[in-house]
Amino acid sequence: MCSMWVRRVGRRIxxxxxxxxxxxxxxxxxxxxxxxxxxxxxRTSLGISIxxxxxxxxIKNLEDLKxxxxxxxxxxLQMAVFELEGEIKATAPVRTGRYRAAWVSTKLGKLKYxxxxxxEYAKYLIYGTSKMPVKHDVRGIVxxxxxxxxxxxxxxK
Length: 157
What we know:
This protein is of the alpha+beta class. It contains five helices and six strands, in the order ββαββααββαα. The protein folds into two domains: about 5-40, no CATH class; about 70-155.
């Protein structure tokens, strides 16, 4: 048995009653598995008006944020890199001071930095050898700083 809903009454009615209501021009909708579908020939239209205030201002603010956010992120990242470089230097083993003094940070591009050391024996101190243990755990320091940098970047407003 086919049944229909009458929107005004909101109760289920038989097909013959629905045909009579349709003939009189009353609104009714057919209920199917995919939801409500307006019955053909319905004389009532549904008018919806949506008014959004301040949309222009919001769009402008988002565009300003889009322009300024990379610069803010770059500044925070630069600060983090300088602090990381300072911690690497502070924990570096010192005999002559050449290894500690050779640590430099370089900006490679937008949001890209490198901290490096060009002393020829730096790789032995950082990675060790089969007979010599690691003397300066730079990888561990960088790994600890990852979380700090993420937290710093989350504070950007």
